[in-house]
């Protein structure tokens, strides 16, 4: 490699004649080439320095000297500290040193919990398959939160999730009430877009919540999720679903494995009409639903040996309670309830019955 030196070139005060234009151009080209060479050499030295520091960190790091089983468990315990910004604990561990990178990539359990916050950029759609791949086909726990408008739901990202549905074991979807927008044109959350899950064979628990009374999920999509989950065991719904089915009445969905179902509010009647759950053991449902025949028809259609039934729900949000607007259920409703239960065929198998009479009243009575 050639080296440029000032002594090789005369100074302006030299008695020698001035260089020609061609010589100056050649000199500039030579200097430019030398600068490129020095930059490349500097980059190589910087990389060598980083590598040497990582080697030193690995040599001094007690975690790197531990057996993989122990160091992996330490990394897993770090998840309890929560997520740090957008990258999260697993990604942060990759950036410490090469030894920690090797440990993190050799610990698939680190990558089995995924939090997706909408709105987000399309870049997450490219990052998710990499994250899922690091889980080594382990079952995934997915939490999706939506903030702001319904259009903030990124279908490029959710499409990736539905395409990897065969890995999902626990799925929770909710929208954050603190960030909801009251807009008549922004009321329905579209979970699928152009992509519907092919199958959810590992899904055991499904939780869908809407904290905002002016926004809802699409009932046909909720039914579709349940239908494509042949091993689902538990579901929790807190939402006001869309009562109208756009494409007419759907087919009845029979789920032979679903044992525990919780409806935390009214507005789910459209789902009950099209569900049959023969393995249902525990059901929690708002007291207002017993006023019509949907609940009893659902129970008779399911033919389940129901063991625990909870009607009504205790008030949860003390800050938003409005005592002036509360209207408690009267004795006539309670009498109709017990009459309906007495006439139903599922009562002999019932082991536990809880009725919250004042489901919107703090500390309301229960039976």
From TrEMBL:
Residues 21-55 form a coiled coil. Keywords: Coiled coil. It comes from Mycena sanguinolenta. This is F-box domain-containing protein.
